[in-house]
Amino acid sequence: MIGRLRAGTAFVDQTSFRADVDIASQITTLSQIDNVGRRAASTVSMGGRGWEIRMIDDDVYMKTDLDLPGVGHDWMALDPARVPSAFALSFEPGKNDPGGSARLINAIVTARADGPRISGTLDVTRIGNGNGISFRPAPAGEFPDSVRNQAFHASLDAEGRLVSFLIPEANGAPSASLRYSDFGAAFEVVRPDGAVKAPDALYRQLGVGG
């Protein structure tokens, strides 16, 4: 079953697609990416505020309406080498899925199939951090043992592509969903005019929640 899920993400390296991530309706991400054409656009929202990223070949641009110390609200040109790997989109194989499906699949403990639907359990502590779905432990700094058997439900389309991966709220962990769509659809990424060099203060603050 896990092999079917891995095969269902092959489209990441083959065509353009859209990835939507929702964590407890508090953090949402919409990404469009074409790894073959090296174009990507992503928006992240937390309570109506967040940031937008555009990537064109080796150039990375970002704009945020968050009040980050030492960071303005204009479009900025980033140095890709200084962007934390857990934050940045990338066109490099293995790092080019804004949905982070590989981390979810790697965390699966049990799985069973019912036609195009695959359900089972995963270990939240093995998901790790990165683009897409991530969980943070409670303020005490540790996950309860119960999250090592968290339910999940995934769906494949008629062509075997992964189109949804859902984690219901349980065991103190919030609900989370990942959905893929718009396979092969054309989209435009515009290079922003007048982008300023990103200040040093930005790089150490990159990440969900700052």
Q: Which terms summarize this structure?
A:
single chain, 210 residues, mainly beta, 12 strands
Would you mind describing this structure in some detail?
The chain has 210 residues and is mainly β. Helix content is 8%, strand content 35%. It contains 3 helices and 12 strands. It has helices at 2-7, 101-106, 200-203, and strands spanning 17-23, 27-34, 39-46, 49-56, 59-64, 76-78, 108-114, 117-122, 150-156, 162-167, 176-181, 196-197. A hairpin with an 8-residue loop joins strand 10 and strand 11. The longest helix is centred in the N-terminal third of the chain and has 6 residues, at 2-7.
Short description:
With 210 residues, the chain is mainly beta. The chain has helices at 2-7, 101-106, 200-203, and strands at 17-23, 27-34, 39-46, 49-56, 59-64, 76-78, 108-114, 117-122, 150-156, 162-167, 176-181, 196-197. 8% of the residues lie in helices and 35% in strands.
